[in-house]
Amino acid sequence: MTAAAIDPSAAELLDDAGLIRRSLTEPEWFSALFERYGRRIYDYAARRLGAQAAEDIVAETFFVAFRRRDSYDMTRPLARPWLYGIATNIIAGHRRTEEKYYRTLRRTGLDPLPEPLAETVVRRVTAEVEERRLAGAMAALHRRDRDVLLLVAWAELSYEEIADALGVPVGTVRSRLHRARRKIRAALGDTDPTATDPTAEEK
User: Fold this and answer.
1) Across the 203 residues of the chain, what is the mean pLDDT of every consecutive 10-residue run?
2) The pTM is what?
3) What per-residue string of b and e applies to 36-73 under the rule 16 or more CB within 10 Å gives b?
């Protein structure tokens, strides 16, 4: 896939499904999808596994997506949930690495990424959230609950998009998110730093 082989202005006129459809006969067009979402997937993976592993996760995500592009549902104009679903499944294979990452962060307070964990997750919460406590609470979550929580907090997907990404009902997304937030609040003294919308649980 070579980005230089396609016309960027022409790519901008196509939605994600259009790019994928065109890539079925002209594979180089899939590179435009990487241009749209590669950095977002990287940031999401880096927050879950650390910066060192993120590049491999991104490469594998788009490799898998490219191989599966002929099965993509072309009625869905946005491929974002699909890509995050693939990335989340790949990250699932690194569950122990992820939990070790959060435990190390809890113990040392040293975040290898440019922005502290709390600053990224806590966009609408006061700055006094303690990063180490948050990391410890994240490590203690069940992987499926953590997947949903971080797809809301870091990928900023809607409940419907998360359901699509993970292949579960919206009700399951809500119950997993509720459970994860309850545990996070308990660990942080009734503060939920992952809620981008204070009334999100009521929706």
Assistant:
1) 65 94 94 94 89 89 96 96 96 79 68 50 42 82 93 93 96 96 84 53 41
2) 0.74
3) bbbebbbbbbbbbbbeebbeebbebbbeebbeebeebe
